[in-house]
Amino acid sequence: MSKDQVFRERARVLDTDLSGSATTAGADALLTEIFQVERTPAPVVRRTRRVPAPSRLLLGLAASVVLAGAFVVGPSLFKESGQVYASQAVTIDRDGDEYVFYITDGDPDPAELQKAFQKVGLDNVKVELIPVSPRQREPVVGWEASDPGSRMSSTTSDCKVRVEGCLTAFNVTADLKGPAKLQLGRPAKPGEKYAYPIDATVSGEAMAGTTIGGLTVAEAVRVVREHDLKVTYQLRWPLHEGVGYRAEEQVPASRVDPGWKVAEAESYNDGAIVLSVEPGPGATPPPGY
Question: What is the pLDDT of residue 64?
């Protein structure tokens, strides 16, 4: 499997008709070094995570979580460019054949962002805010586009150098054709379900203070149920290259061996904990995995 294929698997696919991807030497290098897992609660999709030697969402080189679309993740987006728009929530630069958007408001008004896109001629871009955990450490950015030639890049690595107070930044093709949708994470309201999962054991989440990773499935289930929460499962099938895995979503309990090890627990703030399980020796993956 090529890096481009793995990269596409890793993208959050919000529209199965999306196509097209873009890579650069910098993106390939970063992909080899770090690969985060992204997932969507429904429908069931295949996802691939390249597990870095050290991390998942907690990246040494900060990068946004990109949910969907054709995109490149790189260490830096910010070259010499000229400002074409600025407001309290967003600053826009023109950089060659792309616009660079610098987001400075963690819970912006979608209408204000919509206006910013319109000001630079991107009238077909719809802006949507999606609820994520207030404890989410990296910005969540989603992108869908009907134009197969569109490009979207995202990073937080040095956007503060260009714009004070910048939280995340992304590039969008300036001559974008057809409709597109940008999704940005916003802090979920109390009790609101997350559109993107978070480690359930971090402070403030449903399993805060517990240790789930490394337990057997049977042990982890007992801990979860002690917190009066439901359990769902996903299985991590190793990639043929031997680095990383592809996650099989919404696996029934009947297919999960109680003695298998749990890698982590995630929460959508919906009363259930998703146990990410590593199948034991001899386990056979389903077709396609």
Answer: 39
